[in-house]
Amino acid sequence: MSKLDKDQVIAAFTEAYTAANGKAPTIEAKGGWYSVDGGKNMRLADLNAMIADLGSSKPAKKTKAAEEKPKKAAESKPAAEKKAAKATAPKKAKKKAKSNFSVKAFWAEKILEQSPDSKLPR
C-alpha cells in the first residue's frame, strides 16, 4: 500500500469536483477524516477514489441538461391534456404489487460481490 500525499490528493479532488459541479468544494479536515461540503466524513483514500468517479460524471451533466429541455416542452401542454392524464392515474392504482426484494438476499449478493471467497453468515 503506497502512502498518499494529502496535498496532491486534495488538489486533484478539488479540480475534479470543480469540473464536475462548477464550484469549488469546502473540505474540512479533522483527525485524518475529510468532510466535503459538510457531507459524510471519509478517509483520504476515499477522496482519491472519488476523483475517478467525478471525472466520469462529466457526460452525466450533459445528459441532465438535455433532459431538462423535454421537461419544459411537457410543461407547455394544454390544460385539457393534463386533466385527462390525471383522470387515468387513479384508475391504475388499485393494488400495489409486491416486490420480490429481500434484504437478506441483497446483502448476500453484496458480500459475495466484494469477496467471492467469503462465507455468508448463518
Short recap of the structure:
With 122 residues, the chain is mainly α. The protein has helices at residues 6-21, 44-56, 58-75, 79-92, 103-114, and strands spanning 27-30, 33-36, 41-42. Strand 2 and strand 3 (41-42) form a beta hairpin.
What can you see in these coordinates?
The structure is a single chain. The chain is mainly alpha-helical. The protein has helices at residues 6-21, 44-56, 58-75, 79-92, 103-114; strands at residues 27-30, 33-36, 41-42. The radius of gyration is 23 Å and the shape is extended. Residues 59-70 have low confidence and may be disordered.
Properties at a glance:
122 residues; mainly alpha; 3-stranded antiparallel sheet; 8% strand
Figure out the total of helices.
Answer: 5
**Beta strands, count:** 3
SS class: mainly alpha
Major β-sheet strand ordering: 1-2-3
Biggest sheet descriptor: 3 strands, antiparallel
Radius of gyration (Å): 23 Å
SSE order, one letter for each helix or strand: HEEEHHHH
Q: Approximately how much beta-strand content do the residues carry?
A: 5-15%
Helix content: 55-70%
Average pLDDT reading: 74
Q: Which descriptor suits the 3D outline? A: extended
- Low-confidence runs of at least 5 consecutive residues: 59-70
Q: For the terminal residues, how far apart are their CA atoms? A: 33 Å
